[in-house]
From TrEMBL:
Taxonomy of the source species: Eukaryota, Viridiplantae, Streptophyta, Embryophyta, Tracheophyta
Matching Gene3D superfamilies: 1.20.1270.10, Substrate Binding Domain Of DNAk, Chain A, domain 1
Protein name, per record: Putative heat shock protein 70
Annotated Low complexity bias: 169-182
One of the record's GO molecular function terms: ATP-dependent protein folding chaperone
PANTHER family: HEAT SHOCK PROTEIN 70KDA
Entries under SUPFAM superfamilies matching the protein: Heat shock protein 70kD (HSP70), C-terminal subdomain, Heat shock protein 70kD (HSP70), peptide-binding domain
Species whose genome carries this gene: Aquilegia brevistyla
Pfam families assigned: HSP70
Amino acid sequence: RDNKSLGSFRLDGIPPAPRGVPQIEVKFDIDANGILSVTALDKGTGKKQDITITGASTLPSDEVERMVNEAEKFAKEDKEKRDAIDTKNQADSVVYQTEKQLKELGDKVPADVKEKVESKLGELKEAISGGSTQTIKDAMAALNQEVMQLGQSLYNQPGAPGAGPGPAPGSDAGPSGSAEKG
């Protein structure tokens, strides 16, 4: 709605991967003559695609000036929209990662901790579907706090790596666990 399409291209051949794994570097370059060059590079495969658009603006100069003035006028509103979109995308990612972690850990998570995480997860999903940017940020922070508790509870469980009592301080227990000297 607010943009004018100048051209398009596809970056094909990106292998299927979990969300957030592919890394695509996109570069835009506009030279003094108004020639636009766009390059997209898949960092994983090295595949590259580019497009050069000459004579990108077939618009009269007064139309271009009007568009620039409009862009400046709505810059703050656009920044707020971008922040809202970025926050929502980040929240979606947090939901995905948390659900994945809960699924992977399964029964290793204490029931009370899992219940709290799932509750905060539900609150974040609700905020994503209809809350303000600040509500989403607050729900994300609350969920992250519970996820930290989840991690802490895993390491505090008996039988967890590094958990449980070790040799008593000051004891001479050797590798066999015996304090006797031979």
